[in-house]
Every structure is written in C-alpha cells, then in structure tokens.
Amino acid sequence: MAAETFIAIDWGTSSRRSHRVEGGVPIASERDERGAAGLVADDYPAEVAAIRGRLGDLPVMIAGMAGSNIGWRQVPYVEAPATLDDLAGALEWTDERTAIVPGLCCREAGRVDVMRGEEVQLLGAAAAGLVPPDALLCQPGTHSKWAGLEGGAITAFVTAMTGELFALLSRQGLLARQLTGTVAPGAEFERGVLEGARCDLAASLFGVRARGLLGQLNGKDAPSYASGILIGADVTARIDSGREVHIVSDPQLGHLYEIAVRLLGGKPYRVDSQLAFVAGISRIWELAS
Amino acid sequence: MAAETFIAIDWGTSSRRSHRVEGGVPIASERDERGAAGLVADDYPAEVAAIRGRLGDLPVMIAGMAGSNIGWRQVPYVEAPATLDDLAGALEWTDERTAIVPGLCCREAGRVDVMRGEEVQLLGAAAAGLVPPDALLCQPGTHSKWAGLEGGAITAFVTAMTGELFALLSRQGLLARQLTGTVAPGAEFERGVLEGARCDLAASLFGVRARGLLGQLNGKDAPSYASGILIGADVTARIDSGREVHIVSDPQLGHLYEIAVRLLGGKPYRVDSQLAFVAGISRIWELAS
Predict the structure, then answer these.
(1) B130-134 long-range contacts, Cβ below 8 Å, gap at least 24?
(2) What number is the ipTM of this complex?
C-alpha cells in the first residue's frame, strides 16, 4: 500500500461521500445517506470500519459534520484567515490512522460565521489551480457559503441559509402547496432572481402566493420563481457589477447560480465540487503524512 | 332589535373573533380556534348559526379568510385604491342577513399583493380617526401588512411573511433547537433589528446558529435575536428616516414593531387592532343597511 493511498470522507449532515484516493485521484467512490444527523458519536468507529471494509484497509481523512457537536467529536474551529496548511496542522486524530479535519470560523466587523467541510473544497479548488488564488468563491447549497480568497487563503466568509429556506417553505406553511414541483432555469426563475435583487425577501416570497391567486403564476412555474427569489437575494447581497464569482458546486445548482450571477451583472465561472474536494483533502493528506 | 345591532366576525386562517356590536360598541365578544384552515365550505352555515345562538339572532358581517378559496365562498378582490364604501358596495350576501366583506388586491409597478380581513382594520382605523387620512399603516403578524393611506383610502400595500418565516424556522431545520423560548424586548432583540437592517435575511439568520456555536448568544436570547432580524428587515424595507408609522396590532407584537421602527429612525404610533376592526366593520354595516 503506497503512502499516497488513503480514504477521504466528506461527511455531511444528511449524506456522505467516500473515496479511495490514489495519487490524488479517486479510483473508487460511494455515496449514501448515513450523514451526521442520523448517527450518534458511538456509531462512528463501526461506520469507519465498514467503509474500510469496502474501500480498503487504509488511513482515513474525514471532513465535515463528523467534527461538529452533532458528530463523532467536536473539533475546534480554525480561525480565518486559514490555508490547507493550517487545517493539516490542526487535524484531530481519533487513532493513529484516522483524522478529522477542523472547520473554520470567521470573525469580521462584529459578525461571526462557521463552516465544516466546505473549507476543504474551497481551498482545494485554489490548491489545484481550479480558481485563482485571489477570488470570490461560492458554494451554493442548503447553507450557501461565500468565501473570499487572498493568496490562496480563506480570509472571510458568509453563510446564507438559502437552500434551507426553500426547503422549509416547501414543507409547511402558505407556499407549500405551490412548491411541490421542480426548479428549472427559464423565464420564471430569472424573474424571481430580479425580484430577489430587491433584497426584501419576506415580501417577495409572499408575492409567490399573490401572483398565484391573481392568475399570474401557474403551479408548474412557482418553484422556479421562488427559488429565483432566494438565489437572487443571496447573489445580490454578495456581488457588485462585474465581480467574478467561482461557483464550486454540482452541475444543477451551479447552473442556477451561474444564471443569477450573470443576470445580476457578475461573471460566473464553474468548478466541480467533487474535484475540488479530492484536491483539497489530498493536499491535507500530503501535508500530514 | 335595533338596526344598529349586528354580529361582526373577523374570520382568520387559524382563529376567529366574533362580537355583538350595538351602536358601534362591542358588548359581547368571543374568540376561538375555528379558523378557515380547519373548516370546509359546508361547515359555515352551522358555524354562523351557532354564533347567532350565542351572541343573538342578528345580521352577521364577516371579514377575512371566510371569503377566500379556503373559506365559505370565494369573494372577488376589490382593487386598490379602495375605501370602506367600496367594500360595502361589493359585499357578498350568502342570504339576506349574512354578508362577507371582500378582500383587496393591489397592482403596482409590476408587483401584486392581496389581503383579506386586514383592510377592515386599516380602513376602520382611519374612519374612526385613530390614524390620519394620509398615513403609513403597519399591521404586523404572520403576514405583516403595510398599507399606504391617502384621503382615507388604501392606495397600495405590501405583505411580508415575517411571522410565518419565524414560525417555520422554529418548527424545523437548523435553528429550531435554538428558537424554543419566547421573544422579548431587550438588547438581543435590538441587536437583531440592526442586523436585519442589512437586508440580507438568509445570511443574518445563519448568524443565529454561528453566534450560538461560538458562545456569543445564549439559548434564552436566541428567539429574541432571530425575531429582531426578521422584524428589522421588514421595517427597513418599508420606511425611510423620520417616517411616521401607525402600528395596528395587539399590544405584544405591536411593542416589538414600535421598538424596531424607533431604532431604525421612524416615528411609531400604536393603534389597538380590535378597536380598529369594530370601527371598520360598523361603518361597513351602516353603509350597507
């Protein structure tokens, strides 16, 4: 077994992805729903052993919510500005060949923020040259992360619970009956983005209901319009005209953010989030080996 | 039975209030949870008969969600600008002594909005001289209504689903465990109002979690801080410095909005919402008699 071979796990709240990485390349991968929210701390040794059983009896590097207060053990945050070297220097080893990568916290102008897992992808994107060392990165999702990079370090970041608000509105309350379909790019999504740019979220969202009642929005288009409002408000709060944004994401959500960034005057670039994760965790593994 | 005696019902989504009104004064009142969301159209005749059984065999004027597509029968919206005369002229009579007051819709600069029930309180406040004929009115709640009055008519209005967002966040998702307590005026509510004034709701709300994780916000204060964010964003989107706002509300929520309006540079005035409702529905009853 070569030193450059290990298992990387991106352990999220609701799901996880595991990769057998050889020389920086994922040669076997799996994804399942055994996220941190469905586990207790005592479950982790057996979970990791089972992953080793499937992907190989190898060292394991874990990023994400496994290191949170709902995970295996709480690993203190590294404070921004931070690099991959800082993360590698603050690994939490649960035994001599199993480590948890710390998350980041950020304190800036009276505001605070936290992330766990995204830091590996964002810094990995820079380490692999997928984004410039000085850049604005966006990782959209349940909790969208927007991070400023300077010289390859994350200097500051903001989280917006954009995806979670959509999920909450879809499950309960006034708009739930309208938000049962799928979100798709198109005219209603773009109309939503421009409405969201008013930065008046609670009123714009009521407009989904009002437009429906007055026959201006059909049921099929309501999810796209509502998603456009939320993404439009998120992007507007983060960019000025002409700003380059590097979107680290899966293809579908990345495309929606790409449309919104362009519509609001920014310049979007796309980066594959899995590629960025493997690049980041491989670099941490190298630094720790 | 004098002609000036009738029963007024404010039939909301989740609850309703009924009053026996004599000469413009409520002399008997009741409140229960039999709102429109828990009833089907066929339930209404028996419900109204039961209220008559308790409050008197009198004419009945109904405002609110009984006139919606989840109520007794759908009464078309009256278009703003609108006065109490316009509402009285568009009553929907279900029989010769039972009428439903229509709601209002508003189309302005490409935006649309709707209300059902609040129009009686807002126009009633003006008719009774509780607010000036030209004023900005706010009726905070699950769906906060902000209405501009000119010459005693509602000319335009906006709804913000401020209260509903708080309820959704309290029930499910990332912040639910922090939002179990009560909202109270004080330093954390005011801090939330100022954070909300950034008009970056999805990010400010994630800050409730981040401040909790980093030990900057204790559990008892989290609901007040989160409520402050939502109310602060709502008020900021609606007023400029020095703006007078007439808050038509129950005392508790009205006080929170009063604090936010003052903190954000406006001049708040308070109006009792029940008084305003009885004034408005009594005037409609007079006009229709």
Answers:
(1) B130/B246, B130/B271, B130/B272, B130/B275, B130/B276, B130/B279, B131/B246, B131/B248, B131/B269, B131/B271, B132/B246
(2) 0.94
